[in-house]
Structures are given as C-alpha cells and as structure tokens.
What we know:
By secondary structure, the protein is α+β, with helices and mostly antiparallel strands. It contains 15 helices and 11 strands.
Amino acid sequence: MIKKSILENGIRVITERIPYASSVSIGIWVANGSRHERRELNGVAHFIEHLLFKGTERRSALDIAREIDSVGGVLNAFTSREYVCYYAKVLDKFLPNAVDLLTDIFLHSTFDPEEIEKERRVVLQEINMMEDTPDDLIHDIFHQQFWMGHPLGMSILGDAESVGGLTRDAIVGYKEHMYRGDDIIVSAAGNLTHEELVSLVEQHLHVLPSGSGRVETALPVYERRLEIAEKDLEQVHVCLGLKGVQQNAPERYDAFILNTILGGSMSSRLFQEVREKSGLAYSVYSYLASHADAGSLVVYAGASPENSEELLDILLRELRRFKEEPVTLCQLDAARDQLKGNLLLSLESSDNRMSRLAKNEIYFGAPLLLTDIMAGFDAVSSQSIQALANNILDNSALTLVMLGRVNPSQFVPAQINV
C-alpha cells in the first residue's frame, strides 16, 4: 500500500509497505538537476552529490563508509538532468540508522576546503575518464548537440573549466538555495510503516526551509544538426537521435513499445539487422531520454570506419520502416509482453520500488497504479505506433553525431533522412 504525507516545510514523504520483504530502501530526492544550473556553475549538482559523502560534523568520510558497511547496507547517490538522489538500502531493522546517516550527510556536511580540492580532482578524473571512453563520450556530445543552447544540453558532470572554477561559497550557496522543502521527496519501500518513517524524517529534516529554489527553463527547440568529431579511434561511434516524448505524454506507451522493437533487446530489429545478420557492430541499441517537457529517441552503434556508411544506412532504414509500415501483431505482442515482464520483475526489488515512487511523484504528482500501466500497454496498436512514428521521426529534428576516424565526404547531410 502506498501512502503519502506532506510535512510543514513542503517535504513529501511517500512509502510503499512490502511486509514480506526483509529490506528497506530509502532515498532523499531533490527535484533539481543539471538543467537547473547556471552555465558558469555547470556540474555543481553532481559535485555536491560527491561532497556530501566527505564528512559531517559528527562523522568523517571513513565513519560514513564503516557505518553503512557494518549493517551490510548500501549507500550511494546519483545525479541526472532533473533530479539528485541520495539513497540507502538496509535490513528493515536498521531503518532508523539509515535515516540518521542519510539526513546527517544531507544536512550537516562540512564542505571542508581540503576535501573540496581532493574531490575536485576526483570529478576532473571522472570527466577525463569519460573523454577516454568513446562509447560514453558520444552520448554526452549527442545531448550537447541535440539540446544545443538549452540547459538540457549541459553535461551532468560539467567540464574542466566549470568544475575547476567552483568555489566553496558557490557550492554551499547553491545547496542552500536549491535544497528546499518543496523540491524534496523522501521515498521508501520495504518492510516499514509510513508513520514511523514520517516521524523519523520530520525529526531530522524539519529544519529545512520551505519553498523552491528551482527556476523553470524555457521549452527546448528541436533542430537538425550533423556533428562529426574526429578522433583517432578503431571504431566510428554513431549516435542518431530524433524527437521523443516527455515523461507524462499520453503517447509514452507507444514510445516504449516502438523503442523496444527498434533496439531495446537482443531480439530487436537493430540488433538482428546490424549485429546478427550483417556483423557490423558488437554494440547496437536504442533508448528513450524523456524529461518533464521534452524527450529524444536515440540510436547508438559502433563499427569500423570502412563499415560506418553501411551501418548508418541500416539505422536510417530501420527508423524509416516505422513510418512506412505498421509493425506486425506478433512484434507488438512480444514487445508488450517484454515490457510488462520487465516491470513486474523490477517490482521484486525494494530499491526499484523506491525509485518508482519518487519518479512518479516528480513527473505525475501521484503514484501510477500497476493496472493503469498495464492498460496503457494494452491500448497500444500497430496504427498508434505508426502515427507516433510519423510525428516524432521528423527530419527537421534529426541530430547525427559521429565520433572517430570519419571521412566527411562519405556523408551527404541532405541524404541523411528517415
């Protein structure tokens, strides 16, 4: 059963009790991410995520690590374009310990200048590591190109210049301004009671101010772009993207199924055509990147330079098929069953349930019933997928990024169409 309470300062506490579970997963979510940063502060949300584990008034970084290890738990965090999450997973009897630890780092991190400089070097190495990993780097370049001129295009990590310029005052000031009650969600799933968690959260987080620090950004604009990034690599990495759907779009179920058929699994069209039949690539897949107000459908593959032209032809052809011909009932049913199965299997994990609670609150303002989700998948038809394809597979919004030893003369921009 899912329950929700709102504290006096606006913090939302949402729980799902799983009485047969032996664990509890709890997360403190802040509905601010990299898209809410000023450009000169790009990377600050991710930097703060790192710094909160570097010591508080009561605990050193080592104390924090030892405390979660001593109960066999997990403590971690992640940053996205629209939120940051600090979470723990522990045995149910250690829930008070987890709340105490999470709220301590959330409220009382010291931001010691020496630790800031140490962690700055760590984050810069993380940026360098991505630069040295082309199959990660290309996605960052793609998003910069696809959302060019919009905050969604900024890197979650930031870059060497922006991270290098973050002062302690700027970091602390950003946290104080952005970590406010109306933008904070505490979600938990497992063998717990809602009332116990509300009491624990209120005891610790009542000191946070109410209100919101988030500044809403303008709607992004879709444009056509071709970017060739030359780099001495063994492969040419390709990212091809078009319009997607926003998180709460009514057509999201059609988009999920379209993506699954396109490149969401080993039985998908792209995997079968590019890898199994043609042997052109080891890695090929597609994904949806959906946000509060926009989204993208992205295809990725990597091939040898001499095969990159053939690879691109196949990617474009498989996208074009969705506009030109309805998917078969067999493909539709298989994709529908795959997505339903993935969802049901994910519900066996308390941390997945905890994440679903928070994300549904961020994007829908309420939990999504499992019956409604299944009904959404059941309502998808071959005709509705084709209608969506003809809407989002728009050449005026097509972005192509190629990274590696690319011969630009091989690719005529006017001929790159779906």
